[in-house]
Every structure is written in structure tokens, then in C-alpha cells.
Amino acid sequence: MTVGPVARDADTAAFFDAAASGQFLLRHCPACGAISAPQSAQCERCAATDLDWRRAIGDAILVSWTVSHGRPGTDPVILCIAELAEGPWWWARLEGGEPKSLSIGAPLRIAYRHPTPDSEVVPVFVPASTATASG
Fold first, then answer.
1. Where does the ChsH2 C-terminal OB-fold domain lie (predicted)?
2. pLDDT digits over 65-92, tens only?
């Protein structure tokens, strides 16, 4: 199972440009300094709408997961929710992990995949122990 196709619009262009270069962006509030999830239109702390982008370090911990078994004959896919080191939660595919070996709080790292030629590069999570320096 792949994600896609994922297409950009004016609101997501900066996020996808950054993902294509191996960076994960979060929303930053200049008014109060809070960090919010990438999809946030307003600050989660003070409700300001004048947000800018900040690069995340790429570390996370596993909060929850589920296994999607899909069609017969296909490999199961792990979908997870992870808490980024900066605080916001993000959901994505988890690659390289075995469902039986997962545990809440397991360290993860963001990696990037280009699922189809017509899709944007998308962030996924991988176990931190298997992540490479290039993500």
C-alpha cells in the first residue's frame, strides 16, 4: 500500500517543497512562540493566524499504531501517530517496524518517500535504530 497521489496546493506548497529536500516543517507562532502541526491555520496556543514555518529536527516517539491488512496477498501496512520532538502529533505510515515489536514511546525518525511519479514526496516514520543519517 502506498500513499498517493498526494498533490500540492497554495497552502501546502512550502511543506512539500521542504519534504522534497528532506525537511519536515512545522508552524511557528511569532506572537507567542508556540509550535503547531503543519496543517494548522492558527496557533494552537493563542489563536494567532500569522504563522511562519520552522524546520523540525525529525525525531519522534510512537504514540499509537494500527495495522492495515488490505487486500489478500498484500503486505500489511503500519499506520501510526507519533509525537514530534517539538510537541505536535503527526500521523503517517511506519516503515521497517514489525507490529509485534512496537511499543508506546519507541523512538522514531522521519524519512521521505516519493510513492508515485505523479505524487509529492511524503514523510513517513522509521524506527530510529534503522534510520540513516540522510533520513
1. 53-112
2. 999 988 898 888 999 999 999 999 999 9
Instruction: State the residue range of the domain holding 32.
Output: 13-130
The C-alpha atoms of residue 125 and residue 14 are separated, in whole angstroms, by 20
Q: Is residue 8 part of a domain?
A: no
Tell me, yes or no, whether 4 lies in a domain.
Answer: no
Task: Indicate whether 132 pLDDT > 70.
Answer: no
Report CA-CA distances (Å) from 24 to 31, 72, 75. Answer: 22, 34, 27
Is residue 6 situated within a structural domain?
A: no
Output the DSSP codes for 26-88.
EEE-TTT--EE-TT-SS-TTT-----EEEE---EEEEEEEEEE--STTS--EEEEEEEETTS-
Q: How far is CA 101 from CA 4, 8, 14, 81, 123, in A?
A: 27, 35, 35, 16, 22
How many domains in the chain? 1
Cα three-residue angle 17-119-42, rounded to 5 degrees: 50
In a domain, 59, yes or no: yes
